[in-house]
Amino acid sequence: MSKKVFIETYGCQMNVADSEVVMSILSNAGYESTDNINEAGLILINTCSIRDNAEQRIWGRLKAISHLKKRKHDLKIGIIGCMAERLKEKLIETEKLVDIVVGPDAYRELPLLVAEAEAGHKAVNVLLSREETYADISPVRMDKNGVSSFVSIMRGCNNMCSYCVVPYVRGAERSRNPESIMKEAQELYEMGYREVTLLGQNVDSYKWDNNNKIMGFPELLSNVAAINPLLRVRFSTSHPKDISDELLHTIALHDNICKHIHLPAQSGSSRILKLMNRDYSREWYMDRIKAIRSIIPECSLSTDMIAGFCTETKEDHEESLSLMEWVGYDFAYMFKYSERPGTRAARKYKDDVPELIKSERLSEMIALQNKLSIKSKKNDPGRIYEVLVEGYSKRSDEHLSGRTSQNKVVVFPAESRVKGEYVNVLIEKCTSATLIGKCI
Ligand code: SAH
Ligand code: SF4
Ligand code: F3S
What's the sign of the alpha-carbon dihedral 155, 108, 342, 314? Predict the structure, then answer.
């Protein structure tokens, strides 16, 4: 009987992609994946450290699964990913429940480490690497729809934004061999996938040196787009300091490169951006938005914003709101600043915005973004969008759901359409999160 593994994933898309790599490594070692935690002999939790509440959720989850171990004495529990990297051995020492701790660059060692744990030893590997990209590993796809998938193009981050734990838990930036990226995207297309999202913490700094012939992100992106016109290509995340006109022209040139850019501003105040070590000012960011609007007029925009960073005043906060309003984001992820131990902000600045004010500022951002999200859809009724169908809508088996190139969700009566198909949909109305229409 093969051993069964259950993987639970927290955090960003990188972790989702990594869990697929982990599953591939384990299945080559004779493991079988299961969706049923009760039948697993090995439970892996792929963790996130980005904010304190992300870690708290995972601690809560660990407590909740502790009863499984009482029932099944040979069950092994592993913590992998960013929290494993941040807390290292401490995780095993303080938490009796945990048998295995593996950081994001040591997944190839997992079968060995599980065997160690089974033999009753402490199994920890949190070494970071300058080379590891798992380029040769074909991820085991664990998405539910079979239409869209992630392809990791680089790992780590060299930016050192002062609030951010990622460079510490994911190590130095390294790009993956483009041949292996092309092969993976091509295989996904042949398996029936119709959308790939190229992933990196800062995709604009993708760089592959082949005997002094340098390939940058725009070239990689056009190559992936050239695989097939029916394969949509998305990417995340762009960094405002690095996003180039060359990239914008590449996006404009290919119909199948999606017209959506996630360009995290973090703050609208140049003073705060400087403290954040983001390497751009409000004016620079606005200039980049102007370039996007002129080169790709139909492009949608989203952002990440942090409320209540160290020393943030009411005026700084208002600059964040006015930037959001000026851009008119179609979508935004907004967070309260959470101090992460060891980061530059934690070492150098005081986390001095009171919790209550952080919450207030966050609520103001969310309220504003709700308004902007509605505004971004208000002009859509009457328009026709090409929608890639991802499956049935959450609410009804008679309706399909998919997304436009701009990443807007569209729901419409299924008729005879199926997932993976492109359908032209006439938009009839909208809610705050969804466009509703009919196929034509
Ligand atoms: N590489 C990406 C983002 C990675 S983390 C980028 O640079 O945009 C995703 C988001 O989490 C960040 O954009 C930021 O808005 C948020 N974030 C990161 N560290 C945080 C912290 N300490 N407190 C609150 N939000 C944080
Ligand atoms: Fe963190 Fe900045 Fe790197 Fe993004 S670019 S992962 S925010 S250090
Ligand atoms: Fe992602 Fe969280 Fe790690 S956001 S890189 S899983 S700290």
Answer: positive
